[in-house]
Target: citrate synthase (unknown stereospecificity)
Amino acid sequence: MPEYPTALGASSRHTITLLGQDLANDVMGHVGFGELAFWLATQRRPTPHETRVFEAVLAALADHGFTPTAIVTRLTYLSAPDSVQGALAAGLLGGGSRFLGVTEDCGRFLHDVVVNAEALPTDDEGWDALARETVTAQREAKKLIPGLGHHVHKDGDPRTPRLFAIAAEEGLYGPHLSLFAAIGRVHPEILGKRLPLNGAGVCGAALADLGLPLELLRGFALLARTAGLIGQLAEELRHPVANDVFLSVDLNNRSVAPPIDELKSYGGSHHG
Amino acid sequence: MPEYPTALGASSRHTITLLGQDLANDVMGHVGFGELAFWLATQRRPTPHETRVFEAVLAALADHGFTPTAIVTRLTYLSAPDSVQGALAAGLLGGGSRFLGVTEDCGRFLHDVVVNAEALPTDDEGWDALARETVTAQREAKKLIPGLGHHVHKDGDPRTPRLFAIAAEEGLYGPHLSLFAAIGRVHPEILGKRLPLNGAGVCGAALADLGLPLELLRGFALLARTAGLIGQLAEELRHPVANDVFLSVDLNNRSVAPPIDELKSYGGSHHG
Amino acid sequence: MPEYPTALGASSRHTITLLGQDLANDVMGHVGFGELAFWLATQRRPTPHETRVFEAVLAALADHGFTPTAIVTRLTYLSAPDSVQGALAAGLLGGGSRFLGVTEDCGRFLHDVVVNAEALPTDDEGWDALARETVTAQREAKKLIPGLGHHVHKDGDPRTPRLFAIAAEEGLYGPHLSLFAAIGRVHPEILGKRLPLNGAGVCGAALADLGLPLELLRGFALLARTAGLIGQLAEELRHPVANDVFLSVDLNNRSVAPPIDELKSYGGSHHG
Amino acid sequence: MPEYPTALGASSRHTITLLGQDLANDVMGHVGFGELAFWLATQRRPTPHETRVFEAVLAALADHGFTPTAIVTRLTYLSAPDSVQGALAAGLLGGGSRFLGVTEDCGRFLHDVVVNAEALPTDDEGWDALARETVTAQREAKKLIPGLGHHVHKDGDPRTPRLFAIAAEEGLYGPHLSLFAAIGRVHPEILGKRLPLNGAGVCGAALADLGLPLELLRGFALLARTAGLIGQLAEELRHPVANDVFLSVDLNNRSVAPPIDELKSYGGSHHG
Model:
C-alpha cells in the first residue's frame, strides 16, 4: 500500500495544520494571502521583503482589461452561469504560451544564462558583457529575447522601472534582474534598435530572483489572473457585456461554402 | 458598434491603470494581493480590517491536503506536464457544489434570512430567536442547514472560533456571522443533537458580512484554492506521488462483464 | 485495499478488451463511433435503429456557428496554441444550463411526467390530455416548458419534424417524444400563443426515448459539440478570426472610473 | 466592422445549414457521427473507406480503463456533480504530451520524414531504406522514435496489425503507414532490440494518411476520449468508485514537516 507524504494541509479530529503550522491560530489572521501563496509554493516562509516583491509581481499581472482570457471567462459565464468554477477555469486555460507565457519564458531564459555562467558578474560592466554575449548568441541563432518588446508600450512599460525599484528597495535585486537590466542597456548596439523591457518579462526575472520554482512561474501568473478574472466576473454581474460580444460576432458571421481556404498543413499532401 | 465599459485594467502607450489607479506607482508595492483581490471584486478598496478578515478566510480555504481537487491537479500534471494551466484548471473544476460549495451555500442561506427579516436583532437573544425560526423552518422542509456538521471535526472545527474572533477584533462581526453563531447555539434544542459549525460555513458568513457579491463566494474559495493547488504542484515537483496514485487504481482494477450494475435512472424504463 | 470494478477498457500483455469485447478484432472496423459512444454509455450495444436516431441527435447538436462555446475555443487557442486540449475543454465549459442545457432539462422534464403518470396513454388523444395537464400545471407554477420556443426559428425549428420522422421510421417514437409532440399540439390553447418545439428539446426527448441515462443527456450534447469545436479549430487554422474578435472587443473598451454600476446583490447591504 | 466567415453552422429564420448542407434533411439521418466529425474537420465529406479507418482509430483511442484522465473525470464529478461539463473538461485536460500525445507526435514525426523525402519509395525495400535512415538519424540525435515501445504490450500491441489491415482493406495504406511499418521492420538491426509499434502511434500514422490536419491529431484522440469519459461517468453513476479512490489517497497521506525534499530547480540557487 503506497503512502503519500505531504507537508501541506493535514487534519485530525481536533487539529488542522498547514505547512506544519497550526492553521487556525498561527496562519489565519497572521499570514497575508500573497505571503501564504509564496509559502505554499516554496515550503519556506518568505520575509516581508520577499512578500512585497512577490505581491508587486502579482499586481502587475492580475488584469490587463479585455484580454482573450477575460473575454473567455465572461462568455463562459454567459453560457453556463451555473458554474463559476467553469468560467474561471476556461479563462485560465488561455494562460498559455502566447499571452501569459512571457513571464515563464523570460525567467527560464535568464536562469539558463545565469546558471551556465562561469562566475557571476559583480558590477554593471560585467553584467553588460554577459548581456552582450547573450543577445549576440540569440541573434545568431535567429531567436527572440523573451521579455524584450511590447506592442503598445513602445517607449517603455511603466511596470518595468517600478519593479526594478521595488526589488532594489527590498534588497532582492539579484542576478536575473541584473542580467535583464543589462539586456535593456546593451541590446540596441547589437540589434540596431531600442526595444522596451516589458512588464511580463521583468516579472519573470523578479520571480526567478525570489527563488521560486521555474516550472511554476506560469502558475504565479495564473494565480494573479485568477484574482483578475473574479474581478471580470464581478463586473459582468454589475454591467453585462458578454452577450453583446457574442452578438457582435454572431451577427457579423458570413456564411460561405466549404472549404474555407486550404488547410495550412495537410497530412495527405502526398496521396496520389 | 457596441462599446465595452470597464473599470478594471486599461492601458495606453504611456500609462497602465487598474481600478482607476496608476498601476505601477500606486498599486505595485503598495497593495497586497488579498487586498487587491477584494478591490477587484468590489471596485472598492478594502480597509485594513476588511483585508485581514478576507485573508484569514483565504488561508482557511487554501489547502486541505489530498482532496479530490488536489489529486486531480497532480494527475493532470502527470498526464500533461506541458500545460500548468490545464492542471490548475482541472483542479478548480472540482470546486463545485460538494467540496467547495458550502461556503457559497452558507453565505446565501444566511443572507436570505437576513434580508427577509423585518428588523435585524440587536442582541444575542434576538439572534437566537431568529435562528430558532430558521432552523425550525429548515427542519420542517426536511432541508439541511448549510455549514452545520463536519465528518472529521465532530467536536468542533478549529477554524470557526478563530474566524469569529478575528472578525470581532476587526469590527466586522455583522449579521451573517451573528446569525451563524446563533444557529450554533440553538440548533441542538431543535435537532436533538449538537453539530459543529464548520469552517467552510463560517467563511461564507464572514465573506457575506464583508459585503462581497454572493454570486462569487465560490469564486473566493477558488482563488484560495488556486494558491493551494500551486502548492500541490510544487510538492509534486519535489516529491512526485501522482504516478503511485494512478497505479494504485489501475493495478487494482477488476475487469467485469458489462453491464456493471443497473443504471440508476433509465429513460427507457417505460419502453415496451 | 479497495478494488475498482469496470466493464470498460482493460488490457493485459496480449489482449485489450473494451466492454467485454476484443477491441482489435471485434470493435475496430466493426463498430461506428456513434454506436460505440452509445454502447460505452449504456453498456449495451445499440441496434442499428437506435444508432441512427442517436447519430441524428448528435448531428443536430454538433455545431451552431459562432456560439459562445465556439468563440471561446477559438480565443483560447489564440492565447494558448500549445494546448489543443485546453481550447476544447474551455469551449465545453460553456455547455451549461443556458446554451446546451435545454436538451437535458427537456429530457428530465418529460421523464418526470412519464414516470409519474398512472398509465401511459395509448393514442394521441390520451397524450393530448396528459400534455394539457402538464402545460397547465407548469403555467400555474409560473414555470416555463423546456424545449418550447426559439429566438430565431419562430415559425418552427427544421430539426424538430425531421427528428420525429427519423424516430418514427426506426420504431423509436416512445413516450417522451409522444408527450413532447402533444405539448406542441395543445400548448396554444393554454398559453394563448403558438411557440415552436425547438431542436434542443426534441433531442432531449429522443435521447430519453433511447433509454440513455438522464444524468448524462448534457454529456451527449457535449460529445456532439466536441466534434463541432474540432471543426471550429480546423477552420481557425485555415482562416483565423480569433484575433479580430479579440481586437473588436479590446479596441472598443471604454475605460470608466470604478465603481461601474452597483453590484446586483451585495451581502453587506445591512451593514451600518 | 470585421466580418467572420465560416463554412460551419449557420441559420436563418427558416433554415439551418451545416457545411453548406441542409442540416435537417441532408445531414440528420444520413451522416454518421464519425463521418460528420471528419467532415467538420476537413470541410470535405469522407468516403465510406475513409470513415471506416477513421472510426477504427476512434475506437482504438476511446477508453483505456483507469487512466489518469478517467480517474480525473470521476473525481471531479464526485466533487462537483452539478457540472457534467466540468468533469468531462477536467478529464480532457489530461490529454497532453504524455498520455494522448503519442498519436500527434507520431503523425507529425512521420509526416516530417515523408514531406522531406526527395521521392517517396514505391516498394517495401525502398521504405525500409528510408526507415533505416530515419531511425539512424534519431538514434544519433539521441531521440526516441514516437510510436515505438509499449510498457504493457511488450510482444506487440493488438491494435497495430489490425489497423494496418483495415487501412489496407480500404485502400488507405498511404506513406505514413508505410513508413511506420518499415520502422517496425528495420529498427531492431539499428537499435539492437525489438520494440512493438504501439496503438497510439499507428493511429497517428493512419490519421495522417487520411489527410487530417496534423495540428489537430491530438484533437481526434480527445474526441474519442470524450466518448470514453462519458462511459466512465455512466459507470460511475452505476457503481461509484471515486470516493474510494479519494479515500485510498487521503487515508494514506503521511504528514511530514516542510520542506519535503529539495525543489528540483530553484531560481534562487545563485543567491548570496
